[in-house]
Specification:
The protein is about 85% helix and about 0% strand. It is mainly α. It is flat, with a radius of gyration of 18 Å.
Length: about 210
Amino acid sequence: MELLIHFVLGFVIALSGALIPGPLLVFVVSDTLKTGKKVTGVLAALGHCFVEVFIILTIVFGLSSVFVKGSFQQSIGLIGGIALVVLGILNLVELRKTLKVEGRDFSHGSFLGGLAFTLLNPTIYLWWATIGLAMLTTALRTTTILGICLWVLGHWLADLTWFGLAGYSVFRGKNYIGRRTHRILISICGIILIALGAIFIHYSLQSLMT
């Protein structure tokens, strides 16, 4: 029964975090609009989970303290912020091309996008070094290594479900919106990425100056 509880906890806690809009969700929406692929969200979520495998291994080997160090957070925030601003600008610059690439195979791009937008998000590392670490520790203390595995499985299932549904919803809705609305939505995604990047840069520079 305790094992099942940890699986459910992993799912619910991950879902509550995934529901908060972030760079990865923006990427899923933008990429689905560009490619017209209904599995974009799932592929991006797989890229996200791939990164988390290494984060979890880092925690297991007792190196989670690295994630909460100010220098690490500042570096990731600054690098990730600059990268998000650049990607947002490219999203806007290449807007005219996006309507011409629909139908191509972007499977690798969606997976790599999920991977990149996870790596570039400094809040991911902070979440795992605090909430994630606490949950993994609790799962191990109250059950066995199997409890940890089930918690992680629930966590990943939540990511796959949410981003998969988000991507599929955009895919379905794309058939009912016009070209003008399509372009506006992609533009909004680019602006959001630039805004998120600017926020990351602002807080990183603010931390460096204090």
